[in-house]
UniProtKB/TrEMBL annotation:
PROSITE patterns: SET. SUPFAM superfamilies: SET domain. GO terms for molecular function: N-methyltransferase activity; protein methyltransferase activity; S-adenosylmethionine-dependent methyltransferase activity. This is SET domain-containing protein. It comes from the Eukaryota.
Amino acid sequence: MDIKYEVKTSDKLGRYLVAAKDIRAGEKILAEQPFVLGPSSDTSLVCFNCYLPLINKFFVCKFCAVAPICPGDGCPEGIAKWHVQKECDFLRELKLNINMSPIKMVQNVGSLLTLRALLQRDNKSWDNFMKLETHLDQRRNSSVWEYYQSTVNFISELKLLNDDEDKNLVQKVCAAIDVNSFEVRGPPIPALGYAETLRGVYLQAALMAHHCTGNTIISINDNNALMCHASKDIKKGEVIYYNYTDPLKGTALRQEHLLMGKYFQCTCERCLDATELGTHMSSALCPACKTGFITKSGEKWQCHHCKEETDDSVIGFKVKCCQNKLDVINKKDEKELEEYIRNVSLVLAPNHYLLIDAKQRLAGVLRDAINREPRPTKKMMRRKLNLCDELLPVLEVLSPGISRTKAITMYELHLAIVQLAKKEFDSREITGPKYLDELLNAEKHLKRSIEMLLIEPGNSPEGELCAKALEQYRMLKGTMATILDGIHEEGKVYVTEIDEERLNDVD
């Protein structure tokens, strides 16, 4: 068996993974099924067998007479089933001994994941689950501890634990799940598409240390199998990192997320760099020189151009106002988003995470409008193209190598280039050779997008986009061949822009 990683231990990282050999970008590092998977603590009611949302009504398992399950014909075929025999027998005993009611289970659906973890105490993987980081001392007597007391009380009512077992075992299980779980898409309701977000604990993947630029990418398929691939080359002995935060958020928000959910403060290169690797994702425009970018250092913001300092009370207030404005605008309205970007660009750096958020949303709105309208304008296409062009350099820095967001952005950029070039060629604004130049440019972005999307599960949204991108690539090659034939029929020779530059250099 080709082992790609090994587990090491340190005071700073605890248990963590390092590369046992050189790993190439795109290479699979690990694949595993969840130790336990289930709904989050604030979930709506789901089927205890397949995790489909139960909206109007539910049936009860006919064997245990306790577990809520799908009504009608039962759970759909092809979806993993989680109400296993052991659990069914346990609930049946509860029904017979303490008259456990289905309503009690409905009321405590948020504790189902904890219950299912505890029912695996005789599983050979239980000890590895118990070794996961919990930060229990930091959670003790906190609001989180108090929140999970209802789960502790529910488990106590089930008589699942012996008197001699750890009194804090339930809290420890809740903590292990909170700190180490990954979000998993639940099965969607047919026709509606609505699904609950589930949480899964993957015992090996949970050991990956955090880094805000990471070197891995994770995907989870419809069978709940987690696949971890290298997003860039990893040398033997290097730490295998995963980014547990949103790379398109500023440092303060990422640090807050990690402190609340993972109980540590990140000290990676990006977090220690006030410019966030030169992207200025949390920077504002200097109110003094109007051209430089100011970054926060303690209670002061300093301009990197004129060195002028400004109080945090001034810049922090402006950033907060920009955040509040983004929270209330209609994020599906093109005009409101354009106005927001125009106004906030007078205050924040061009790549500030609030502007990046607004630009991503605007690109999505324009995409939908272009696809929906019978005759979309060239102005809309150019605007979408420019937005993708602005986003890509930021993504190249913050998500180096293979990146899901980058792949989608490149796909949308290629689409905008193709659509705009076709419209300009049809209206005779550009020649055949220029049209072919644009299509070659689009092909370059599309190929990179496909290369990144190929590792995605086929039944995921990204996997479906990959299939769509492959079809687009086939069509694009056909269009390029047709245009090239037309150029040759006119007795001309097509020279690419790159070849033309080389010829000019020779001259």
